[in-house]
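Field: sequence (string)
Field: structure_tokens (string)

Example rows 1 and 2, in order.
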Amino acid sequence: MVDPARNFDAIVIGSGIGGLACACALSHSGYKVLVLEQHFAPGGLTQTFSRSGFTWAVGVHYLGGMAEGGDARRVLDWLSDAAIDFSPAGPVYDTVHLPEGFELQFVRPQAALVAELKERFPSSAAEIEAFFDALVEAERAGRAIFARHAMPSLLGKVFGLWYSTAIDSWWGRTTEAVLKEMITDPRLRAVLATQRGDYGPDPRESSFGLHAMVMRHYMNGAYFPIGGADAFAAGLIPVIEKHGGEVRTRAAVATLMTREGAVSGVRLANGTEIDCPLVFSDIGARNTVMKLIPPGLRDTDWAREIVSFQPSACHVGLYLGFDGDIRTRGATRSNHWFYETLDIADGLWRNPANDATPPALYVTFPTLKSDASTPPAESKPTAEIVTFTSWDAFSRWEGTRIGRRPKEYLDLKVTIRKHLLAQFERHFPALAPLIVQTELSTPLTSVAFTGAEHGGVYGLEASPRRFLSGHLHARTPVPGLYLAGQDVGSAGVTGAMMGGVMAAASVEPSLFGKLY
């Protein structure tokens, strides 16, 4: 079956923020773009869901760079025709809680955070200064890495040579290795490792460069989209449509079509074929290779290296709805990170059935962020709890479907909910009595709604090898096929957005000016 609308200039597979950003960037460049989304709602991890009048985001918790004139805000304003507004989180954006009652607030701007750290750790003042200098150097090297990902291979290699020393120093080493080298005090080390939850739980495996970019991302404050996370899709899709494009949901792509080794279009799961010689994939590099590329094109060094990377860590999420004013009972606009140990090593909740307390817990109150002016009496206050877990705890049910999972899985969800509620009550005892609604997601939920392999919502592993790889360019060896999103950018909403624009810039080099 051939689709009658065969006059699209480009096809984007996946409507996450990376795919929508890519489509909008191409639309602004005169392309008529078709976005194909397998789910019934667009937006990927920027979508929301509701139960009993409560609404939660699935993947947007806070963003940096969204102040007026900020780097990320400037790009997003251009993509969306300035249709998305943000509410600032205030002077405190993260609060870390460590054992023995230790608490420290991450405050903006950077100078205030540095001053706070020096006051709390006076004997480490010189180390703190050196660490923040390293963050700047690592971020600068990271920009070179990602610019290289959008360039043709040879040009990218030449460009990368200029920054090779800094790239190797900061992106070629793990977060744990750099922290242990630079920071003597274990408690300070734990504080500075706090935000690893924004990309993955294990500093022994993650690249310090990514950790540095995440920390730098929030130095001038954190922001949340006014009206909620689905403001991204609501603001970006009209731009695509205004330029003659279209976003189709329930349109799962089964395979790429090729002709003489080059992309010629896509075939949907329902058999519909859409001809187009330019295809951008926002479903992840591994999914693209393993699910979309015809088997005959997978026997290459590029495809083998892509498949050699592991999916990022997965998570469970507990979504809470409250009846009452949560602001007077301990809820804040700041996120809260709870760590049960000073050891910054593995933070996975490996056995959620039997281990009652996950080693790390993230708690956020999104309704206090989306629009601080909303009176408490008019709001439906919510919280979101996230902790990383092991795919092995859920892999036995990989082949089952939502609504048809076996009793053993449902029983595990009940146990997990009980454990997380008990831990939440320990940390927020005044809030627990106000809980009237709960909803639990697992890695299987992430697979079902986003297609993320093993529920790894941050794309590929965050290792040094991943970021030093020469195979994660937006332009692939398959003519006409490009990668967008987190895997050519970095973890998170902003990283995926930039990855989408980088993919478009690989076809339209003039778009580099929008990024740098």
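Row 2 begins here:
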Amino acid sequence: MKDARIYGRFSSKPQERGDSKRQQIEGARDYANKNGFTVVAEPYFDEAVSGKAGANLEKEFGRLLKEARTGETILVQFMDRLGRQNPFILGKLVYDTTQRGISIIAWAENKEITPENINELGTQITTFTGAAVGNQENLRKMKRLRDTTDQAYKLAEQGKQSGTLVKYLPQCFTWNEAKKAIELDPVTTATIERIFAMFNDGIGKTTICQTLNKENVPTLYHNGQQTIGTKKPWIETSIKKILYNESYAGVLNVKGHKITCIPKVVSRDAFDKAQLLLKRYSKRAGKTNGRVNNLFNTLAVCKHCGGTVNVSVSPAKKPGDKVCYSYRCKNARLHMCEHHKMLHAFTVEYLFFVYYFMGSPEDSFSSSTGEIAAKIEVAQSKLNKLTAAISNLYDMAESGDTEAKNRIARRKIEQLEVEQEITRLKGQLVEQANFPAAAATVKQSLSDGIVIDARELPAKLANNEIRAKLRASLPSIFEKVVFDTTARTVEGILKEGVKLNTFFKNTTRFDVPRPPHGR
């Protein structure tokens, strides 16, 4: 009896649904039984690992070569399962393996390469030609895939859909072969719409996960190890991937192409709002106790040092006492700012919403989007010209014009700068459009009617769900909120073009009195 180790591989994820793995392993075992081999270890198998560049050498095949011993045999279905690299590269790998006293048998091809026959002309010819054929087949396959993909991009530029695009899209996009169109799965789409709606309402990613897991909503991503029963749970990373994926807004970004002929899951406004919130929340650090402590997160700054103003939490000293929340300069806590006083959080928040939001909601805002839209139009025109210029330069470069290559590099830098400017202007446009909705959210959250009742504010501000909505809405209205803890004042700096109807029109600053307990 001779010792043998089984190796198998397939190159693409769709093959997981097929029978390739079973056929390779059971076929090898059957060959071993019939030919007097003893399989000394569990089969080594590389799933969804391409053989074109030898990636399997870093995975199971590499482990097999490391663990194989002199006198053993590697059983493999076909030689190209070992790899489809250039025949010179694969030939050297085979030669080096036999020099360690290890044989290779491709049982489906009835091909045997041993330390004894590796120097025979017949073995060398069949090994080299087999590797060359496998390599050429792989190159032809890759060329067909590239041609198919390039054709899909060209059709997409003409507004035509193709099944090739689906492999770059999330799970809810499917290809209807009969209609020749990309369609949306209604169940998955409803989940995605709900995630965007919850996040844009100020609900955090953790809370969204908890809600979906509690309701046993199926996840959209199949990777990951944790499970709830037999189902994989929602995690914050999955929610973040969904919120950042522009495909859901009808724009597929793939290999430098922007494809806009795909159906939308959510509106452009909903997607852009989510991006703004993600950018704001990315500045947050650490975890809280579940309560939305700082309503002015990303907005609150110290007047004296310009540092962040955070919420300091003082735990109850004895049973029956309440936890005390105070706004304080972060730099002062780190002894980097002399203004270390604290302002009682409830007092600040109560006065802030009384001061700014107890006026009439009519004509609360005045903003002009026409100027921004004009700037976007000018920038887009410049971008179109740069794109056309780069296309023309490519023709010159292909003709051997070296200067054209340098000019392409410069034009691409300009192109990137213009694209960034357009993105910035579009974000500013979205901010302008969000002003009325943000104010309406604040009003609706804090009042049961049209005007906020100061007597209702304490109960409203104690509601964590309302606090989340307020925190999400305020950055669309205020540029920043300036705290002077020493003078005990707070000033809200409105965004450009925003005007709020308040009872106090002569100043934007209000004083914060000391609370009854003296803090």
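free_text_note (row 2): The CA atoms of residues 87 and 131 lie 5 Å apart.
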